[in-house]
Design goal:
Blueprint (H helix, E strand, L loop, with lengths): L10 E7 L6 H10 L3 E9 L5 H11 L3 E6 L5 H10 L5 E5 L3 E2 L4 H12 L3 E7 L16 H6 L16 E3 L7 E5 H6 L12 H11 L4 E11 L9 H19 L6 H25 L1
């Protein structure tokens, strides 16, 4: 399927890969068959597991697919911005390499976004066992509330069966669709994040700029989670906690006292060794 990137409804799919050989081929084959996709940009962050060879083979047979290879791993946010800059389509879809869309997934998301006026739209995410990902619908973190009650750390929201398009604070970065003007208006992803929390950050800045963030409850997408993060669990957890601290400093710290800021810092970094150990054991 060929779509001109000059069309007013064409989508540029941006995929950031890292050690993604297990799923990248299936992900890209599905994007090549997806309705409305006029450009595919794969930005690889230093893979050495065969990911590059898979992407390059597909790029040879599909002129819509361009490949950007970073020699190291500058992070998810940097790579997403690289892919967006290298494309021209008026719609941007950020798609994880372990996300497997159906032929109509992105086109339906675009239809919902146009009808609802949403500035950023996500979808319902399910794993291979049919379990729903709580990250698909989230509240903003409130770190001070988390200190008082562990229950406040649960950010996931239930799907509202009465709403096809449900406004939420944030959706998962595994799949995000946004009109390019909104993405450019807020300056894209914050490149100060390396891994994790950059999706929360982008959603919050879009809302603060006056845009609506929402999830399409009638669109379910298969997400084979954690493929890229299995090889380096300590690296992933370190940057996850670093991202949480950056998010707190940007959005919550200015209105908190010194004692609360110190308590949040201690809570985040006291959690790191336990989370890292669990991730290692889960491997």
């Amino acid at each position: 399927m060929n779509c001109s990137s000059e069309s007013a409804d064409t989508i540029a799919a941006v995929v950031v890969s890292h050690q993604s050989a297990e799923t990248i081929g299936d992900c890209l084959q599905r994007l090549r068959q997806a309705q409305g996709v006029g450009e595919i940009r794969v930005v690889d962050n230093g893979s050495d597991d065969g990911t590059l060879e898979i992407v390059q083979r597909l790029a040879l047979v599909d002129p819509r697919l361009h490949f950007i290879g970073n020699p190291d791993n500058p992070g998810f946010a940097v790579a997403c911005n690289q892919g967006a800059t290298d494309s021209q389509a008026p719609w941007l879809a950020f798609v994880n390499p372990d996300l497997l869309v159906e032929p109509d997934t992105l086109a339906r998301l675009r239809t919902h976004a146009v009808a609802s006026g949403a500035a950023l739209l996500g979808a319902d995410l399910v794993d291979e066992a049919g379990n729903h990902d709580v990250a698909a619908r989230r509240r903003d973190p409130d770190f001070a509330a988390m200190l008082a009650s562990p229950a406040a750390a649960r950010l996931g929201l239930a799907a509202d069966p009465a709403l096809v398009v449900q406004p939420v604070d944030a959706v998962s970065g595994a799949l995000m669709l946004t009109p390019r003007p909104w993405f450019e208006r807020v300056g894209g992803f914050d490149e100060g994040y390396r891994l994790h929390a950059e999706d929360l950050d982008l959603c919050r800045r879009i809302r603060e700029a006056g845009g609506q963030v929402a999830v399409a409850n009638d669109i379910a997408v298969l997400h084979v989670r954690g493929v890229s993060s299995r090889a380096r669990p300590l690296f992933v957890e370190w940057h996850k906690h670093r991202g949480l601290w950056r998010y707190f400093r940007k959005f919550e710290s200015p209105r908190r006292g010194v004692a609360t800021r110190l308590a949040v810092w201690l809570a985040i970094w006291a959690r790191f060794p336990l989370a890292a150990l669990k991730r290692i054991l889960d491997r």
